[in-house]
Protein: TF-B3 domain-containing protein
Organism: Dendrobium thyrsiflorum
Amino acid sequence: MPANHFVYPTQQAWIWDTTMESYHRHQSQQLGEGMNCEKEPMFEKPLTPSDVGKLNRLVIPKQYAEKYFPLDAEAGEKGLLLSFEDENGKIWRFRYSYWTSSQSYVLTKGWSRFVKEKQLDAGDVVIFLRRRGNGDRLFVGSRRRGSGQDSITAGSAAQPPAMHWNPAFCQSTSLASSSYLYLNSIPQEEQSSEATEAGTGNSKKLRLFGVNLECGHLITGSQVMSRKASGHQL
Amino acid sequence: MPANHFVYPTQQAWIWDTTMESYHRHQSQQLGEGMNCEKEPMFEKPLTPSDVGKLNRLVIPKQYAEKYFPLDAEAGEKGLLLSFEDENGKIWRFRYSYWTSSQSYVLTKGWSRFVKEKQLDAGDVVIFLRRRGNGDRLFVGSRRRGSGQDSITAGSAAQPPAMHWNPAFCQSTSLASSSYLYLNSIPQEEQSSEATEAGTGNSKKLRLFGVNLECGHLITGSQVMSRKASGHQL
DNA sequence: GTATCGACCTGATTA
DNA sequence: CTAATCAGGTCGATA
């Protein structure tokens, strides 16, 4: 990977390339390490046509999924609701789950809205970051293909709303007062009202970002019922 | 339909045309009715391009589906796993279900592998048979288009692995000791192992080939729950 | 009717 | 070679 050296415009509205490399460099240079702004890049993914298409899902490469968003076996059934902040402090809630049939981790619900609002296209790159601290927070951003170290430099111009990171985002702790990491169980909207005691003792433990969490009732009783020993282990 | 008279080669390796007519004739002539070899043809279908294409499914004409593979309303949601033996005793498991959107009965999972292995093309004919007895068994075969009573005589030759039935298949009771009819619920591969008591009362009844069967846990509780009144009735 | 979502599936590619 | 991955699909339910 070639280091990509950007000259940042000396304006208030900074435009970042959001490569992990430049991110780190920028963070160190402009803000220092001690400013309560340690968003750690977790991973990036160049979006495939399917990721931005009608399938309304983002496949998260397994290596990253299992490293950063581990689902324990129990939570795996219905997934989790993960909340991410974007560069404006807006919260994006994505359902995150594992598809056993394809052995893949996906963001489903909410993802298509993100693609639409950010006007993401195939080849653009999403980046996921976290800030460790009292209650971890998750962040999501994107950059246009061709920006940063991408291979394709894309002759097409004029794609306004792609992701721009600016330093203010890095201090959004105050900005987004209600934007703390939300890590919830999937709301049980489509689940049985009889679910109440079918899955007794069904509250789940999840370790995410080094934090142990309780997730209530992620699995319906009957789904729990019929799992085979062949289920994947995380 | 013109009766198609075949002269069988007087060799050990019989080549059958698998038309129902010749099947019956052959069975009676060569083996008699009492040889524990009463495979009854149920139906045939000339394969459409879609049946052998990327859709990975076989549409079963409704009249045959409802006659031979009735799905009760409950089983309709997830379908069934039907197992068929081919002429070699190999078991082919196909998911069988009803698609409300197209109002059609289909074999889905497993079908594409069958098409591939048998190298079936559009115009080739699949034939489904059953043997009644202690535990019904299902059989599947195929023949090339142009063989038997087919309309298209197909100028193209040289398609080796198409289906050939030979009399040995008819006595495969011993041959395929492990090849009894498997009539299972869809394996719940992706589901939980803690299955034990959560989904009580979830076993399903299915009448198939005049045999009433219990199919455990075809439907998860939440699926049952969300079934709409619009489900098809059989 | 349309869009989204959840679950399931498969083939091509690759480790 | 086999096994794992994942891009690109399906249907059906829901909103």
In short: Confidence is low (pLDDT under 50) at residues 1-18, 28-35, 150-158, 170-234 of chain A. The interface with chain B takes residues 73-74, 77, 100-101, 190-192, 194-195, 198-199, 219-231 of chain A (CB under 8 Å).
